[in-house]
């Protein structure tokens, strides 16, 4: 069963140098990327993941279903999608860790789509903004703290 997916929204388009930076980072973290069309598959500690640029329509487009005025501090110009291909807790933790690292490096924000399992301890951390029904924007710092929570589970 496929696992969760996350989008990292960025303040700049993901083309040229920015794209190479992401591919180089993921390749270094995983030991190599396999490219098949728009999808890049890779493994982290033996677990399978996918990465892609852009939306379903085009590699240069930000997800068209996003609310038009996101309260995230920038207008998204690019996005990197990440998905775990398995659904165990380790896959959720690895995916969230990868997204957190990419978000910090790309000065982006992590978009979570779905209901969040956030406990009282985690609610106290800053960096999580509800941006619509079942849409949440999270900072790399919030994700880092949330991973430590016993109730951590990415929406699917």
Number of helices: 4
How many angstroms does the end-to-end distance come to? 11 Å
- The topology string of helices and strands comes to EHEEEEHEHEEH
How much strand content do the residues show?
25-35%
Which class best fits the helix and strand makeup? alpha+beta
Percent helix, as a range, is: 25-40%
Q: Please mark out the parts with pLDDT under 50 across 5 or more consecutive residues, or reply none.
A: none
Brief description of this entry?
This protein is α+β, with helices and mostly antiparallel strands and 156 residues long. The protein has 4 helices and 8 strands.
What does this protein look like?
With 156 residues, the chain is of the alpha+beta class. Helix content is 28%, strand content 28%. It has helices at 17-30, 89-106, 120-123, 140-147; strands at residues 5-10, 34-36, 39-44, 47-53, 78-84, 109-113, 128-132, 135-138. A hairpin with a 2-residue loop joins strand 2 (34-36) and strand 3 (39-44). Helix 2 (89-106) packs antiparallel against helix 4 (140-147). It is globular and about 40 Å long. It starts with a strand and ends in a 9-residue tail after the last helix. 33% of the residues are buried. The model has no long low-confidence stretch (mean pLDDT 85).
Short key terms for the protein model shown above:
156 residues; alpha+beta; eight-stranded antiparallel β-sheet; 4 helices; 8 strands
Task: List strands and helices in order, with pairings.
Layout: E1 5-10, H1 17-30, E2 34-36, E3 39-44, E4 47-53, E5 78-84, H2 89-106, E6 109-113, H3 120-123, E7 128-132, E8 135-138, H4 140-147
Antiparallel strand pairs: 1-5, 1-6, 2-3, 3-4, 4-5, 6-8, 7-8
Helix pairs in contact: 2-4
């Amino acid at each position: 069963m496929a696992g969760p997916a996350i989008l990292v929204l960025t303040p700049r388009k993901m083309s040229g140098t920015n794209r190479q930076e992401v591919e180089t980072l993921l390749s270094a973290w995983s030991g190599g990327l396999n490219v098949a069309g728009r999808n890049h598959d890779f493994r982290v500690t033996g677990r399978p993941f996918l990465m892609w640029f852009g939306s379903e329509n085009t590699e240069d487009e930000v997800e068209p279903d996003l609310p038009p005025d996101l309260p995230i501090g920038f207008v998204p110009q690019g996005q990197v999608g990440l998905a775990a291909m398995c659904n165990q807790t380790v896959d959720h933790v690895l995916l969230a860790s990868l997204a957190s690292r990419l978000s910090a490096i790309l000065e982006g924000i992590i978009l979570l789509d779905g209901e969040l399992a956030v406990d009282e301890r985690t609610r106290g951390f800053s960096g999580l903004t509800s941006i619509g029904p079942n849409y949440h924007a999270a900072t790399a710092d919030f994700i880092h703290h949330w991973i430590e929570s016993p109730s951590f589970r990415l929406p699917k």
